[in-house]
UniProtKB/TrEMBL annotation:
Disordered: annotated segments: 1-25
Keyword Lyase among record annotations: yes
Catalytic activity: 2-deoxy-D-ribose 5-phosphate = D-glyceraldehyde 3-phosphate + acetaldehyde
Name this polypeptide is given: Deoxyribose-phosphate aldolase
UniProt organism field: Plantimonas leprariae
Keyword Hydrolase: no
GO MF annotation, one: deoxyribose-phosphate aldolase activity
Transmembrane segments: none
Length: 335
């Protein structure tokens, strides 16, 4: 099997990621910038509608894109019936996300391919850190009263601090949606600054819960405020809302990331989450990232996908690429 296209597509996987970049230091809240923020809905809808026909990858090239996607997955379990055993199994899958025989067949057996992170509730952070010891895979903890974010502010800060103390390298916080819906941008900014400070050395991903924010303009403004307050990533959803990640919301958020980078020089990451379960869907998000922000934003330090069943479908597609046959979905362990 030809492996050149696969190698090209999977180049700079996590083991060869770029050197660590400066974190987003934030900036003072700029009300004038916010008041001038607009989203042209019809133009955004037209842009998104062109995505399926603009770019198509097949065979080796598609396999390369999918292997790159694996390195950007935040492999997640956020269920009420989670157990330590389930979390440890998920960590084992994160360390070896693709079957070795498939990697060997694609000429990628010597590459160290892992998922981008493991994402769990605070209760399981210590167990995940222990299970991933020596792997270099970070543990992300959902925090601040996830998913609703309606617990007292001081409780949110203590939860962040507890997860960092247990070894979480990344914290996925949820914003108070009321601040967005009422246009109280100062309150959102102050909240996000407190979250960033409580995280210390841990990187912070700001979950906007875009399905609850009603308009793309609200999404754009919330994205900007969180970046101004020092968010390392902005993230669409908790996965628990009625509407989660969509290409339309993604376009709005990516264009604010670009505007923020143009003005400040800081690179902020992006994480779509919720409902991304098929390999073809993650390809759409990768293409949009590359076209809107550039190649640099395809690396796991700037692009993550929050998912649970996505990995199984990617592995299933890679098996079809190698063997020409589709296997049953349940043959591909998720965790």
């Amino acid at each position: 099997m030809a492996v050149h296209a696969i190698t090209q597509g999977a180049r700079q996987a996590k083991s060869a990621a770029p050197a660590e970049m400066p974190r987003n230091a934030g900036m003072p809240l700029d009300e004038a910038w916010l008041s001038g923020t607009r989203v042209n809905l019809s133009a955004a809808e037209r842009r998104v509608a062109t995505l399926p026909g603009r770019r198509s990858v097949k065979k080796d090239a598609q396999a390369g894109w999918l292997l790159k996607a694996v390195t950007c997955i935040d492999l997640t379990t956020l269920s009420g019936d989670d157990t330590e055993g389930r979390v440890r199994r998920l960590c084992a899958k994160a360390k070896n996300p693709i079957r070795p025989d498939l990697l060997d067949a694609m000429g990628m057996g010597e590459r160290r391919i892992t998922t981008g992170a493991i994402c769990v509730y605070h209760r399981f952070v210590a167990a995940a850190v222990d299970a991933l010891k020596g792997s270099g895979i970070p543990v992300a903890a959902v925090s601040t009263g996830f998913p609703a974010g309606l617990v007292p502010h001081d409780v949110k800060l203590r939860e962040i601090e507890a997860s960092v103390a247990d070894g979480a390298a990344e914290i996925d916080i949820v914003i108070t949606r009321e601040h967005v819906l009422t246009g109280n941008w100062q309150a959102l900014y102050d909240e996000m600054r407190d979250f960033r400070k409580a995280c210390g050395h841990a990187h912070v991903k700001a979950i906007l819960a875009t399905g609850d924010l009603k308009t793309l303009r609200n999404v754009a403004k919330a994205s900007l405020v969180c970046m101004m307050a020092g968010a390392d990533f902005i993230k669409t959803s908790t996965g628990k809302e009625g509407v989660n990640a969509t290409p339309l919301v993604t376009l709005a958020m990516l264009r604010e990331i670009r505007a923020y980078h143009d003005r400040t020089g800081f690179l902020v990451g992006y994480k779509p989450a919720g409902g991304i379960s098929a390999a073809k869907d993650v390809l759409t998000y990768q293409f949009l990232m590359k076209e809107e922000l550039g190649r640099r934003w395809l690396e796991p330090d700037l692009f993550r996908v929050g998912a649970s069943s996505l990995l199984a479908d990617i592995e299933r597609q890679l098996e079809h690429h190698v063997t020409g046959r589709y296997s049953a979905f349940n043959r591909h362990a998720v965790g």
